[in-house]
Design goal:
heterodimer; A: alpha+beta; Alpha-Beta Plaits; five-stranded antiparallel sheet; four-stranded antiparallel sheet; 5 helices; elongated; B: alpha/beta; Rossmann fold; 3 domains; six-stranded parallel sheet; 17% strand; globular
Chain lengths: 189, 569
């Protein structure tokens, strides 16, 4: 089955163990998580996660449903193919001598990246963009000698006003009246 | 007024209408146990191994529909629960497991009897908790019970550090739970239900496959109404057994690897399948790519993750099966399906599937049939796993709702005795028969002590063939009759019974069967019968691994070559 990269965005409760619960589901189905990024959302006790995985659409959909079953996961969407904005951030430490420094700075300018640290024999560059942009910069800098690179995972969001997964949308339904559902669920034999 | 964590836990359990808990104590759960006598409404049954605590709570939950509760201490107590929790998880049984944990300052220090039980049970619980603050305890218990019983039921574990049981807080039991990430869909989508009704109304060869979801949702009447109104035959999964009366003219019995031949043929020939509260397990579908090749499939299930997981589905409906069926029934028009039902009936006559061959020896099938006859089909049957389970599924006819209790998903040998104990505790008025194999029975045999001590009048029938029978059958069929590690030289079960303090009988001949069963029924208390049966009797019909349901084998054909050859069952 053809596999493609999928971007899943999940809104999760900010509780210990959530990441473990989610990662466990991927592991069980033999998925390799390509990247995962977690941070606070616009609601204090909720975090937003962006997960990039490789898999067939059917398999990813199965994992998405399994993720949705995790109690601490409020919502999860596969936004692959949606009109999205996706960004990564990378810090690249590259060797620099007095003769190469200006050339590196020129490349950095073209990419609208910035230099965040200067040392006698290296420069540290910060770049934000999609994967391709970061890869291109990396390839260009490689000839100078890369000392170290650190990349975040992808974070992504659907374009436009209607957030596919905004916390406030649907959040008022958070209270489940057990009295109401209990009548339904404890039907007698 | 302030209360200790142990008291808060007890108060919360009382609020959840818990009446019985199965467990074993230890150092880390001692403060809680010390508090139990203050709450006489909480009955505690001391089992002899924690695995049995979980199975007993499981059996209790299945027959009552309530949440079963099991208890264990930290470390090995908690890990001993694991098999039972996994069993409940795979069969969607509502369970709350409470484990002791070392005191908070010791967590993460590899303290004595410390184990990360929330980590271990993460993939086999619907949800789990470690209580790190006594003030959150009541809320956690409330959530745990709500999660266990609602939606697709399942086990929830609460890990209680020892010092949290001693800490004090104000007790206030919440009336509502706040779970933004959990809202099971109960009502089916009306457009989907319309589509399903249209498909059913246009069907020429419709068939219902009913699973345990019918039992969980108590949708017996809705299912019957659908079947009778539109004249649709019903096959069940293993765990769906007893959701539809098996003496009903529209009942075709169980499908799958050891299902009725005619049930499997019906699935193969149907043009519309209405799969209700079932999950297309591989033992039910056989070769999945050849499953129901002519059918369009309607799948009704409360768990969206089950839709499309194993087979392609044409009309998915997510919702509680009772709610969905009552809506669906309004749209389904009455029908006859005369030709199709006649065809099914012909198959049933041509392929009887559950005939018992003539034999001088004592056949296990005969034993099961006689238990059916003597109990008039009124008993609750709790089985082990393997041949005894399949014979119990095939040769007892289940007309009473929810009267077949078995470990389906995990296939846990040793489930039978503790689960039968839990079932009897839950329904003391019912007759409960435990159908065990001589292999599985020895895995939880120590619970004889519990049923005697607690006066749980379970009737035990050991189908004793001196083998791990189902595996031996596979060795006979696929491994050149090389019986590696399957022969058991069991103990003298009658003496074992005597040692534990219950009466036991050994039966070796046909004519002794009925009197022995009658004697067991008349006895006021637990009773054990060791039926020494034909050692190499096989379970048929059988769909070979890798074959499709249509290729069902109805009788022994000597050694069978399995193709493609496989190494493991």
């Amino acid at each position: 089955m053809a596999t493609t990269k999928h971007t899943l965005v999940a809104l999760v409760e900010n509780k210990p163990g959530v990441l473990n619960r989610m990662a466990s589901l991927f592991r069980r189905r033999g998925f390799n998580i390509e990247s995962i990024a977690v941070g606070l959302s616009e609601v204090p006790h909720l975090s937003r996660m962006t997960i990039v995985v490789d898999g067939s659409t059917a398999m990813v959909e199965q994992v998405r449903k399994q993720l949705d079953k995790v109690i601490d996961v409020v919502r999860v969407s596969d936004i692959t193919g949606d009109n999205t904005i996706a960004r990564e951030l990378a810090l690249i430490k590259v060797k620099a001598t007095s003769s190469t420094r200006s050339e590196i700075i020129e490349i950095v300018d073209i990419f609208r990246a910035s230099i965040v640290d200067v040392a006698p024999d290296s420069l540290t560059i910060e770049i934000t963009g999609d994967e391709e942009k970061i890869n291109s910069l990396f390839n260009l800098l490689r000839s100078f000698g890369i000392r170290e690179i650190s990349r975040t995972g992808r974070i992504a969001m659907v374009r436009g006003t209607s957030g596919s997964l905004s916390a406030e949308k649907g959040y008022p339904r958070l209270v489940t009246d057990t009295k109401q559902s209990k009548g339904h669920l404890s039907r007698e034999l | 007024m302030k209360m200790t964590g142990a008291q808060i836990l007890c108060e919360s359990l009382v609020r959840e209408e818990v009446e019985v808990m199965f467990g074993i104590l230890g150092g880390s759960i001692l403060p809680f146990y010390d508090t139990i006598p203050q709450y006489p409404q909480l009955r505690h049954i001391l089992v002899r191994h924690e695995q049995a605590a979980a199975h007993a709570a499981d059996g209790y939950a299945r027959v009552t529909g309530k949440v079963g509760v099991c208890l264990a201490t930290s470390g090995p107590g908690a890990t001993n629960l694991v098999t039972g929790i996994a069993n409940a998880y795979l069969d969607s049984v509502p369970l709350v497991a409470i484990t002791g944990q070392v005191a908070r300052p010791f967590i993460g220090k590899d303290a004595f009897q410390e184990i990360d039980i929330t980590g271990i049970t993460l993939p086999i619980t619907k949800h789990n908790y470690i209580v790190l603050d006594v003030s959150s305890l009541a809320e956690i218990v409330k959530e745990a019970f709500y999660l266990a019983r609602s939606g697709r039921p399942g086990p929830v574990l609460i890990d209680m550090p020892r010092d949290v049981q001693i800490d004090q807080a104000e007790f206030h039991y919440p009336s509502r739970v706040v779970l933004p990430g959990y809202k099971p869909t109960l009502q089916g989508h009306s457009a989907q239900i319309k589509k399903a009704a249209k498909l059913i109304n246009e069907a020429e060869r419709p068939l219902v496959i009913a699973g345990r979801g019918i039992i969980i949702s108590r949708a017996y009447n809705e299912l019957k109404q659908l079947a009778e109104m539109a004249q649709i035959a019903v096959v069940t999964t293993l765990l769906g057994i007893s959701c539809f009366p098996e003496s009903h003219i529209l009942s075709l019995g169980m499908l799958g690897m050891h299902g009725m031949a005619y049930a499997n043929m019906a699935v193969d020939a149907a043009d519309v399948i209405i799969a209700i509260g079932m999950r297309f397990d591989d033992r039910a579908t056989a070769k999945v790519s050849a499953f129901a090749p002519h059918a369009r499939i309607i799948h009704i299930d409360i768990d969206p993750a089950e839709i499309g997981k194993n087979v392609r589905v044409d009309v998915p409906i997510v919702g509680d099966v009772k709610a969905v069926l009552s809506e669906l029934n309004k749209l389904v028009i009455s029908a006859e399906h005369v030709d199709w039902l006649r065809q099914l009936d012909d198959w049933r006559k041509e392929h009887p599937s559950i005939g018992i061959r003539d034999s001088e020896g004592l056949l296990p099938q005969y034993v099961i049939r006689q238990i059916y006859e003597v109990t008039k089909g009124e008993a609750i049957i709790v089985t082990g796993v393997g041949q005894n389970q399949m014979w119990a599924a095939q040769h007892y006819w289940y007309n009473k709702p929810n009267s077949f209790i078995s470990s389906g998903g995990l296939g846990t040998m040793g489930f039978e005795l503790p689960a039968a104990m839990g079932a009897k505790v839950g329904c003391p008025e019912e007759i409960v028969w435990c159908i065990a194999g001589d292999g599985g029975f020895q895995m939880t045999i120590q619970e004889l002590a519990t049923i005697v001590k607690e006066k749980v009048a379970v009737k035990i029938a050991i189908i004793d063939n001196g083998f791990l029978g189902m595996v031996r059958q596979w060795q006979e069929m696929f491994y050149g009759r090389r019986y590696v590690a399957t022969p058991l030289s069991g103990p003298d079960f009658v003496k074992v019974a005597e040692a534990y303090g219950l009466p036991g009988l050994r039966v070796t001949r046909r004519e002794e069967v009925v009197p022995a069963i009658e004697q067991a029924m008349e006895y006021q208390g637990p009773f054990l019968i060791d039926f020494v049966v034909e050692p190499e009797e096989n379970v048929y019909p059988m769909v070979l691994p890798g074959a499709s349901l249509a290729e069902v084998l109805e009788e022994p054909k000597g050694e069978v070559t399995l193709w493609p050859r496989r190494s493991t069952p």
